[in-house]
Amino acid sequence: MQPEWSIYKEFYFEAAHKLPHHEGKCSRLHGHSWLGRVYVKGHTLQPDGSEQGMLMDFGKIQSYIHPIIENYLDHYYLNETTGLESPTSEELARWIYEKLELAGLPGLDAVEIRETCTSGCIYRT
Ligand SMILES: [Zn+2]
């Protein structure tokens, strides 16, 4: 079996959302301190150069996620900035995954989103 590494970079943002169809309090406008992870996987490590022995420099993953956080997520109203009618953790994880895919992050494996300490999801294709 081929060896495989899966590395991740965590990110944080504060943002508001509401789930208009929810039959509970989530239909009201409220905010979370969101926590996420971008997972990158691969079978080979860099043989030389500044990333020698790494799958990918963690800073490189950061450079892909940072503009998304700054332009769409941190201190924004997610229903507006993402265009999602109901930005649940599931929908948001997929939305971020697709943004990273569009930006061309090599080896993109999954995006994890946690909206509370005990609740979250992982999206991969
Ligand atoms: Zn919520």
Give the tags:
alpha+beta, Tetrahydropterin Synthase, Chain A, 5-stranded mixed β-sheet, binds zinc ion
How would you explain this protein's 3D organization?
Strands 3-1-2-4-5 form a five-stranded mixed beta sheet. Strand 4 (108-114) and strand 5 form a beta hairpin. It has 125 residues and is of the alpha+beta class. The chain has one domain (5-123): 6-pyruvoyl tetrahydropterin synthase/QueD (Tetrahydropterin Synthase, Chain A, 2-Layer Sandwich). The chain has helices spanning 58-73, 78-81, 89-103; strands at 5-17, 30-42, 76-77, 108-114, 120-123. The protein is elongated and about 55 Å long. Helices cover 28% and strands 31% of the residues. The structure holds zinc ion. The site of zinc ion has 5 residues, from strand 2.
Task: Report the top-level CATH class.
Answer: Alpha Beta
Bound molecules: zinc ion
Distance from N terminus to C terminus (CA atoms, Å) equals: 22 Å
Gyration radius over CA: 16 Å
Share of helix, binned: 25-40%
